[in-house]
Each structure stands twice: as C-alpha cells, then as structure tokens.
Specification:
single chain, 402 residues, 17 helices
C-alpha cells in the first residue's frame, strides 16, 4: 500500500475554520458586560459584529510562522477584492462599517499592512498605503490577483480613499493555540484554574453548535450580547461550589431499552408491572445519570466521596419507606397489595424524593437515574421481595454462563 502523503492544504484549511470560530468566541468573551452587540459568522464577512453605533467586518488569515504579508500578498488582495465588491455593490456602507484584516503573518516594515495598522501603532499612513496599492496594481503581472485588481478598479478614487481610511491591519496576531490560551485565561478568571478546562470545553461546545445553527439559518440568527452573557453566566454558575454542570448532549440522550432490558434495575420495574413508557423513561434517566456522573468523575468535578455520600442519603431515605411497607404488609400479603405499595414507593422516588447532589444542581435525571443505579446494585428496590425474586431469576443464568 502506498504511503499517504499528508494533506497540508486540507489541514491548513481546517485550522483556519477552527481559528475563525475561536477568534469569534474570543471576541464574544471580550464583550462580556456589554449587551449591545450581535455577532455572526460568514455573514457580511468572516466575522461580522453589529453594534448600535455601527458594525465591523473581520477578515481572518491564519498563516504558518514566518509568513510575511507583502504588498502583493494574496491574502491582502483577496481581502480587498471582497470589500471592493461589497462597496461597489452597495452591500457595505463605509460610513457605518470598520474593516479589520487580522492575520498571524508578519507585516514587513514599509508594507501596506504596516502602514494600515491601528493609529496607536504610530505607523499609520493611509496616503502612502493607497499609493503603494496603486503601484502594485499597476506593476504586478500576477494572474492569480487579476480578479482582485479588477475589483479594485471598480472603485472611484474617493471610494478608494474612503475604503483605505476604514481598514485596519493587525499583524502577528495570536494563532489558533494562542487564542485558546487567551480563552483559557478567561475561563480561569471565571471558574478558577481547577475547572478552567472543563468550563472552556463546554463553552466552546456551545459556541460551535450555536455557530452551526447560525450558519444554517443565516445572519438573522446572529449571537447577541444578551444570549452570550446569559450562557456564560449560567455555565459559570454551574461550576460554583453549590452546583455541577449538566451537559446538553447527555440531557438529550434517549432510551435504548433493548440494550438494558436484562439489567436488574429493569427487572425490578417488571416486578411491579410498570408500563412500557415509564420503563423507557427509567432507562433514559439511568443512561443519563450514569454518563453524567462518569463525566463528572473523569473531570474531577466531584469532591472526594461526594457520590457515595449522596447515595447514602438516597438509600437511607428509601429505607424508611421500604421498611415501613414491609412491616405494614407482612409476609402473607397478597401479590396485588405488594405491587400497589411498591408502586407507591417507586412514585415517591421519581416525583417526591428529588434530592439534589448539590443544592443548585436541580436536573431531575440525576436523582431519578441515581435511584436506578442503586436498584441495579440491589441497594434499593421497589417490590418487598425484590432481592429473592431477582436472585431466582438472575442466578441460574449467571451459573449457566460460568
């Protein structure tokens, strides 16, 4: 088999998309506390930010270390082509729009990019930058830039002057990994170093899903400052001492009864003749609780022995009702009475005993699913004879399998 050559072009392209999303997320984080903005990916530009006082178009270029953006750079001229076409076509109002070219490339001294850096660089020289662009347009024979030159020619001299006055070039910008580090610093500030990675994974996950939704729906579904502030605050609260994060992918898991039909917690439900819909909900809550608890453990979000203390509380509350049922019914009770009382205890566990693992972690599947996990380990049960009956059913099969 021939050895496959690495597809560097595809990798660079994929890296560019990640960079675009991370930079957009970083913009959102930097706007926290200010609700008067909306941001969209691939709307007017790579990133479009809209505020009450105007808008900003961002062109992003993620390039390999050592890359320089010269006056004949493809990145520079393709960006000018996009903006020139938008101005000529009336989609870009220069009175209301700032234009930012953000690149990880270096800006050589005296280059157009260098002369169009923000004013605080003290290197900004719009007139010389425009003359340099005109010179490149006049002298370059590059076929790859032909369409960009044609778009440049569409603008009248005053429009060119105005366009250049609105452009800011930011070179040596942080690359995709450096932007992640900046996001991590913000996460550390929000929830502390211990939980920063878990927080950032969830924030990026939400942002990526939200961006995909916006790309499918169009620019009208931009992320607003109000949206982002609410999501960020809610996520930060989930990492507080009184709370735990509930992950959306887990909260949306659906039941797979076939996979769990032979497990003890399902057998326990069969003993009390629970309907299929309620059994399905039980399997769903079990799956969600097992997965969420496992993720908390893997990410060290739980305190030492926190889970065992929580289970002890659930078991002890269950014991009060279960023992009362056993004493009240007695061993001679009819099967119908046993099932009726067992159903009452099960109803209590699913609706009334919503004990929280932490005071502000109020997701119902955590408590419900934890009861099913305990039922799967025979630590709790619903039918007063559940241990004997399950052993009778399960032990022969286990013996046979051995």
């Amino acid at each position: 088999m021939a050895e496959r050559e690495p597809d560097f072009e595809a990798s660079a392209s994929a890296l560019g998309y990640v960079y675009q999303l991370r930079e957009a997320l970083h913009l959102c984080v930097s706007r926290l506390g200010n609700l008067d903005w909306a941001l969209a990916i691939e709307a007017g530009d790579d990133i479009e930010e809209v505020r009450r006082d105007g808008r900003t178009y961002y062109q992003l270029k993620h390039r390999a270390p050592g890359t320089k953006m010269t006056n004949a750079s493809t990145d520079l001229w393709k960006t000018l082509r996009i903006w020139a076409h938008a101005i000529h076509g009336g989609q870009l109002d220069l009175d209301q729009t700032d234009l930012i070219l953000l690149t990880t490339a270096e800006l050589p001294d005296g280059s157009v990019g260098s002369m169009l850096q923000p004013a605080d660089s003290r290197l900004r020289d719009e007139r010389s930058a425009l003359e340099a662009l005109k010179t490149t347009r006049r002298t370059s024979k590059s076929e790859s830039l032909a369409k960009a030159f044609a778009a440049f020619d569409l603008l009248k001299p005053p429009q060119l002057v105005r366009m250049v006055s609105k452009i800011q070039v930011i070179g040596n910008a942080p690359d995709v990994e450096a932007v992640e580090q900046k996001l991590r610093q913000s996460a550390t500030t929000a929830v502390g170093r211990e939980h920063a990675t878990s927080f950032l994974v969830r924030l990026e996950g939400w942002f990526f899903r939200r961006s995909i939704q916006q790309l499918r729906a169009g620019s009208l579904d931009a992320i607003t400052g109000l949206d982002f502030d609410a999501v960020f605050s809610d996520l930060r609260n989930q990492f507080g001492r009184a709370n735990l994060p509930i992950d959306e992918d887990i909260a949306e898991m659906e039941a797979d009864l076939a996979k769990y039909s032979g497990q003890p917690f399902v057998r326990q439900l069969e003993l009390i003749e629970l309907g299929t819909r309620r059994v399905n909900r039980a399997v769903r809550d079990y799956m969600r609780a097992v997965t969420q608890r496992s993720r908390w453990l893997n990410e060290n979000l739980l305190l030492p022995r926190e889970l065992s203390r929580y289970e002890r509380r659930l078991v002890e509350e269950w014991e009060e009702l279960f023992d009362d049922m056993v004493d009240t019914l007695g061993v001679e009770a009819a099967e119908a009475e046993k099932i009726a009382e067992a159903t009452r205890i099960y109803r209590w566990a699913m609706t009334e005993a919503q004990r929280r693992i932490r005071p502000e972690c109020d997701e119902p599947f955590v408590a419900k699913g934890s009861f099913h996990i305990l039922a799967d380990d025979y630590k709790v049960g619903w039918h007063m004879d559940f241990v004997a009956r399950l052993m009778a059913v399960l032990e022969p099969a286990e013996t046979t399998s051995v």
